[in-house]
Design brief:
Elements lengths: L10 H14 L12 H8 L3 H13 L3 E4 L3 E4 L12 H4 L2 H25 L2 H16 L5 H16 L4 H22 L6 H21 L2 H18 L7
Antiparallel strand pairs: 1-2
Helix pairs in contact: 1-3, 2-3, 3-8, 5-7, 5-8, 5-9, 5-10, 6-7, 6-9, 7-8, 9-10
C-alpha cells in the first residue's frame, strides 16, 4: 500500500525512520532483502535518491547491510545500542569538526595499512570506484557515492573488517555534507571536483606502489583539504 509523505528538509531521515519502524514491526524479517529503491520510492512517494540516502542511514545504524549488485538486507531488527550521530548534532560546527578529526585519524592510518596489505582484487575495486568518480556528472549524488565507495574500498584493502565497518559508518555520516558542497551554485564547484579527483588519484597511486608512507601522506593531504573546503582546519 502506498504511503506518500510530504517533502521536508529531513526527508531521508523520515523515510529511514519509517523503514526502521517497519523492520521493528516485522514487515521485513532478519536476513530478508528489502524492496528495491524504486519500490520503496513508490511506497513512500519520494525519489530514489531520497531512498538511497535513507538506506545509507540505516546501514550506518546497523539495521541493514548492502550487498553489491544484490540489494539491502535486514541485519538487525532494532537499532538500540548502535553507534550513530544524530543528523541535528552533525549540523553543529564543533561536532562536525570532531567527526572530521576522527575521520582523519582513522583514514590516514588506514591508507598506510591498505598499501601494505592490498591484493590485486582490492586494487581493482579501488580503481573502479575512482573511474566512477571521473564518469559521474558534477554535483550529482552518484559522484559522492563513488567518492565514499573509494574510501570504503581502501578500508577493505586493509583486510580488517572492523576498520572497514567504522570507515563505512563515518562515510555515511558525512555524505550529505559532501553532496551539498559539490552542489553549490558557484563557479568553484568544477575546480573542487577536479582537485578532489587529483587527490584520490594520488591515494590510488600510492597504494598501488605499496608505500605506506606515501599512502598516508596522500590521504592526509586529501582529508585536510576536504575539511578546508567546507570551512574546517585540521591540525592532524
Amino acid at each position: 500500500m502506498s504511503n506518500p509523505i510530504n517533502r521536508a528538509p529531513q526527508l531521508p531521515s523520515r523515510v529511514a525512520s519509517l523503514v526502521a519502524e517497519a523492520i521493528a514491526e516485522g514487515r521485513w524479517k532478519l536476513g530478508e532483502r528489502l524492496p528495491t529503491e524504486r519500490a520503496l520510492a513508490d511506497t513512500y512517494g519520494v525519489s530514489r535518491n531520497v531512498v538511497r540516502e535513507a538506506i545509507s542511514r540505516l546501514r550506518a545504524d546497523g539495521l541493514v547491510q548492502s550487498r553489491q549488485g544484490v540489494g539491502a538486507f535486514v541485519a538487525r531488527t532494532q537499532g538500540t545500542g548502535v553507534l550513530r550521530f544524530d543528523a541535528e548534532l552533525l549540523s553543529d560546527r564543533t561536532t562536525f569538526a570532531n567527526v572530521f578529526e576522527l575521520r582523519a585519524m582513522l583514514e590516514i592510518q588506514t591508507a598506510g595499512l591498505a598499501a601494505e596489505r592490498r591484493s590485486d582484487a582490492d586494487l581493482a575495486v579501488i580503481a573502479h570506484a575512482y573511474e566512477r568518480m571521473v564518469q559521474e556528472s558534477e554535483g550529482k549524488a552518484g559522484g559522492v557515492d563513488a567518492d565514499l565507495d573509494f574510501h570504503r574500498a581502501v578500508a577493505r584493502a586493509t583486510g580488517n573488517a572492523q576498520i572497514a565497518a567504522v570507515v563505512s559508518f563515518l562515510s555515511d555520516q558525512i555524505r550529505e555534507t559532501i553532496l551539498a558542497t559539490r552542489a553549490r551554485p558557484d563557479s568553484f564547484v568544477g575546480r573542487i571536483i577536479e582537485v578532489t579527483l587529483a587527490e584520490h588519484a594520488a591515494i590510488h597511486d600510492a597504494i598501488l606502489s605499496g608505500s605506506a608512507i606515501a599512502a598516508k601522506d596522500a590521504m592526509a593531504v586529501h582529508i585536510r583539504n576536504a575539511a578546508q573546503r567546507i570551512g574546517y582546519t585540521l591540525t592532524i
